[in-house]
Specification:
- The chain is built from 5 helices and 13 strands.
- It is α+β, with helices and mostly antiparallel strands.
- The chain has a single domain, classed as Trna Endonuclease, Chain: A, domain 1, CATH 3.40.1350.10.
- It has a 6-stranded mixed β-sheet with strand order 4-7-8-10-11-13, sandwiched between helices. Strands 1-6-5 form a 3-stranded mixed β-sheet, with no helix packed on it.
Length: 197
């Protein structure tokens, strides 16, 4: 399946594996972190702590094949608008919005992994007193960080580098420790940010 942004905006291609399961191949980027965040958010909802959800990607389906009556297969679709961030919701009466990324690098997080419009979106949420941040997992190091939007912007505005070094995360970000339930208790860090409201 080929998905494109409309109006000649930078294209992103996602293909379907030609295997018997027809699963979407995203090169497994972000899938482990994403699935753990989804389980964490489900747990938060179960205990009535917060209501945070994964945003659906807005697409327009163009071509569908029907190999049999009950098995439709999407062959071509387009992004209707550039997506913003991965997750949003509410916690303690405050709006939360964040992006989640993984990297295999041991030394830095490439800024090419986050789009300019996503950074602008995070900045606008923070400007309007929402809580916005980036969760980055260094998979090889098995370390997960929460980097507040103001720290992300501080790095971008004061550096010419195209990647954020691990040292910056160690200094400026919060480490999220793995747990059982919840798996990635990022709200514990959010409590530190908001001062225990």
């Amino acid at each position: 399946m080929k998905l494109n942004y409309p109006n000649a905006i930078k294209k992103e291609i996602i293909t379907i594996n030609e295997n018997k399961n027809n699963k979407i191949n995203h090169k497994n980027r972000g899938m482990t972190l994403e699935s753990e965040l989804n389980v964490t958010n489900e747990y938060y909802r179960e205990i009535d702590k917060a209501y945070i959800y994964k945003k659906p990607t807005p697409i327009k389906i163009v071509k569908v094949d029907y190999p049999s009556r009950d098995k439709a297969v999407i062959k071509e679709a387009y992004f209707t608008i550039p997506s913003t961030t991965d997750y949003n919701g509410i916690y303690k009466g405050l709006y939360i919005d964040f992006e989640a990324k993984e990297t295999k690098s041991k030394t830095a997080f490439s800024l090419s992994n986050i789009h300019k419009h996503q950074i602008t979106h995070l900045k606008n949420i923070a400007k309007h007193n929402g809580i916005s941040f980036l969760i980055v997992r260094f998979t090889t190091l098995n370390r997960t960080f929460l980097l507040k939007t103001d720290s992300l912007l501080k790095f971008i505005n004061n550096n010419q580098r195209r990647s954020i070094p691990i040292e910056y995360f160690n200094k400026e970000a919060f480490i999220i420790k793995d747990g059982y339930r919840p798996r990635i208790d990022y709200l514990k860090i959010v409590d530190q940010i908001i001062g225990g409201k």
